[in-house]
Design goal:
453 residues; mainly beta; Immunoglobulin-like; globular; binds copper (II) ion
Length: 453
């Protein structure tokens, strides 16, 4: 022990003793001794203050909770759940941080970082009382670490590089181990060179089920992220701070987002995490009102829940919403920030509404391959009508729908509520009962109701 540390400890010991002294035995001090400098032997290992038991080290390990028996497993659309094995009563997981080719949407593939070949990494799913051991292997060209966001655990397992552990060097495997003493919707992400590594995709969800479940029929997990991918390039730009142009649910932009397939009458929970760099997302559901039942800090008491259709999920949080899906149909679920349902829209465009932009485009494109403008009547239909675009780019991409082109991209997906559901396979488009679809008004209707078109 260095002299410096020794003397600081001695000081701490003195201060603690002084507190005890003043509280209990001030009168017993010899008269020549100063009250707040009570003597403590310099050799005393720690202050004589009983440690307050902290929740993390009070955690009680229970038998491992098993899917199907102790909980209804979550569904991660476009994603996966991390498998585990049980060794001497401990759930053992393995995350591999690595680089791979990731397709945001057909036509846009870039080199990303993530876990086990995907971004977000596979969802970790466990049960309150489980003891979990997570090995993290680093196959990246740079150090990393994993922080268990929202998980209550001993400080040394918190994964903050430099603060609570050494960084995991390339080629190394670290071991994290703790007992889960809570339930809720948490996350995991890199805590080394955070801006670059999260922007490259080192993020994932960590769902902890309670022992006594309030069961739902469908329990979905969506993790949002935002990326900057210049049209025609092959890597996200990890130092972008403001102008993100690819916005994703579970690493996918619409139309590559898998639908959430729900049986009519199901009680549904949707857990949404946000590990975007900058943007809070305003998650809006069509067809239903939902209630926020929990955050990454825990459950919200039923008396405090408020009905909503749009919920802000701030950066670095999760929100869990529940509702009963009592109406069949194809219902949109999307971020309500309109530019977050666009893919690779340039933020430097002027306002070209009313201008014949294609003439200008043709003149400038040979000089600036990534140059493009919005269409003269707005941006709808630009991708649909075969706007010229650089290789490996999907400017303004939307997707085909049953009534034409859906001019949405980015953070947009569809809840498909059907009378009978047996899997998450896409059931196709909803077949609307006769007379329940908006259509062009007839002349007779306009005349009857006194409407001049
Ligand atoms: Cu958004």
């Amino acid at each position: 022990m260095s002299d410096d540390r020794l003397s600081r400890r001695a000081l701490l010991g003195s201060a603690a003793a002084a507190v005890l002294t003043s509280a209990t035995s001030a009168a017993a001090q010899p008269p020549h001794q100063h009250q707040h400098a009570a003597p403590t032997p310099a050799t005393s290992p720690e202050p004589e203050v009983p440690a307050k038991p902290t929740p993390a080290n009070r955690a009680r390990t229970m038998a491992p909770g098993m899917p199907g028996r102790d909980y209804t497993p979550v569904i991660t659309p476009n994603g996966a759940t991390l498998p585990f094995r049980i060794v001497d009563g401990v759930k053992v997981f393995h995350l591999v941080a690595e680089e791979f080719q990731h397709e945001f949407v057909p036509g846009l593939v870039t080199t990303c970082w993530g876990y086990n070949g995907r971004t977000p990494g596979p969802t970790i799913e466990a049960v309150e009382g489980d003891r979990v051991r997570v090995y993290v292997s680093n196959r990246l060209p740079t150090p990393t670490s994993v922080h268990w966001h929202g998980v209550l655990l001993p400080s040394g397992m918190d994964g903050v590089s430099g603060l609570t552990q050494a960084p995991i060097a390339p080629g190394e495997t670290f071991r994290y181990e703790f007992t889960l003493r809570q339930h809720g919707t948490c996350m995991y992400h890199t805590h080394y060179d955070e801006m670059v590594q999260q922007a490259m995709g080192l993020v994932g969800m960590f769902v902890i089920h309670p022992r006594a479940q309030r069961r739902v029929d469908k329990d979905f997990v969506l993790l949002t992220n935002e990326w900057k991918v210049e049209p025609g390039t092959s890597r996200p730009d990890p130092i972008e701070m403001i102008e993100f142009n690819v916005l994703t649910f579970n690493g996918k932009a619409f139309p590559a987002t898998a639908p959430l397939v729900i049986e009519r009458g199901d009680r549904v929970r949707i857990r949404i995490g946000n590990l975007s760099a900058t943007n809070h997302h305003t998650m809006h559901i069509h067809g239903f009102a939902w209630e926020v039942v929990g955050t990454d800090g825990g459950e919200i008491a039923p008396s405090a829940r408020v009905p909503e259709t749009t919920v802000i999920v701030p950066v670095g949080t999760t929100r869990s919403m529940e509702f009963v899906a009592d109406m069949s149909g194809d219902w949109a679920l999307h971020c309500h920030m309109t530019h977050h349902t666009m893919t690779q829209m340039g933020h430097q465009f002027g306002n070209w509404v009313g201008v014949k932009a294609d003439v200008v485009d043709r003149a400038i494109r040979p000089l600036l391959p990534s140059y493009m403008t919005m269409g003269e009547k707005g941006m709808a239909g630009m991708a649909e009508h075969g706007m010229e675009a650089p290789q490996n780019s999907v400017p303004m991409l939307g997707g085909p729908g049953p009534f034409g082109y859906i001019d949405m991209g980015g953070m947009f997906t569809v809840l498909k509520v059907r009378d009978r559901v047996t899997s998450q396979a896409d059931p196709g488009w909803y077949r609307h009962p006769a007379g329940t679809v908006a259509r062009a008004a007839t002349a007779a209707e306009l005349a009857r109701d006194g409407i001049t078109a």
